[in-house]
Amino acid sequence: MAKTRILDPGLFTPEAIDPETATFNKRLEAIFATMPPPHKMTPQRLREESESGRGWMGPVKRLKEAADRTIGFSNSEVSVRVVVPEEVKAVYLHMHGGGFVLMRPYHFDPTLVDTAKKCRVAVVSVDYRLAPENPYPAAADDCETVALWLAEKAKAEFGSDRVLIGGESAGANLAVVTLLRMRDRHGFKGFRGANLVYGCFDISMTPSQRNWGDRNLVISTPMIEWFNNHYIPQVERRRDPDVSPLYADLSDLPPALFTVGTMDPLLDDSLFMHARWIAAGNQAELAIYPGGTHVFNMFPLKIAREANARMYEFISEIADQSPPDGSA
């Protein structure tokens, strides 16, 4: 008998949003209403505000548990941010968010350190080159380089060759592109899981991206367009699977956890990619959080704690699994 996976329509109703989340979203929107629209600023100015602590996310929290290093592989050098806990069960290759234009791995130190400690994984976050100074394919190339390095060096460097991959927003895009490149270019299918958090999987823009409008809850339609124009100016290339992995052959990919909130313009990206992941014969789970905005899991909310707990559980479950042959 055929099995049917059914989304609960109730998840998408206003009534499903708990009062704490609804109140927080109103405050968040009011804050953004007092600020210049990000898409009318330069990337350089936005970066300066972020580094100075004047941006909406506040001061950058660099943690002593995280360290920068440079890895050299295949005639390339890429900087990474590394967190190694006392016990290492696996290695988690992480790509940060920021629309391919903003942020650096150290902006995510609290998440990287929590992931390392709670999941007992060494975290390697790629400090990939940013657009518009380095448009596509620079970021994807850097992620591929680090993935190749880990495929060969993870055991020697961290004591485990169990490798997972993941990222947020643009980072989730780069995580899937890296999976595809490693499979197609290098015959590597060794990633054991993919943690894909409110990813942007279609740079040509899904309906939810196009229909969202100017309302700013972290990102808006004009801001998504601003990111895309910096990352890949050539509109005709935006459905290339190496740019928008929603259009790729998704066969032979690892189990994935897709996390997204219902108030995120990228909602469709996770809905569509989750369906295509399963249709390609892979395992996948879709975790939907009513009222969750973009980057909601970084806010002091109950749904954030729930989402992060599920992600940590997913990573831990994969890290603890032994391969079929029983090797480390």
Question: Which characteristics define this entry?
Answer:
328 residues; disordered C terminus; eight-stranded mixed beta sheet; 38% helix; globular; Rossmann fold; alpha/beta; single chain; 8 strands; 16% strand
Order of helices and strands: HHEEEHEHEHEHHEHEH
Q: Strand order within the widest sheet?
A: 1-2-4-3-5-6-7-8
Give average pLDDT, whole number: 95
Task: Give the biggest beta sheet.
Answer: 8 strands, mixed
Assembly state (oligomeric): single chain
Superfamily (CATH H level) name: Alpha/Beta hydrolase fold, catalytic domain
Count of domains: 1
Q: Classify the beta-strand content into a percent band.
A: 15-25%
Provide a count of the helices: 9
Shape, principal axes of CA atoms: globular
Low-confidence stretches: 324-328
Structure description:
By secondary structure, the chain is of the alpha/beta class. It has one domain (17-264, 276-320): Alpha/Beta hydrolase fold, catalytic domain (Rossmann fold). 38% of the residues lie in helices and 16% in strands. The protein is built from 9 helices and 8 strands. It has an 8-stranded mixed sheet, sandwiched between helices. Strand 5, helix 5 and strand 6 form a beta-alpha-beta unit. Helix 4 (138-158) packs across helix 5 (170-186). The longest helix is centred in the middle third of the chain and has 21 residues, at 138-158.
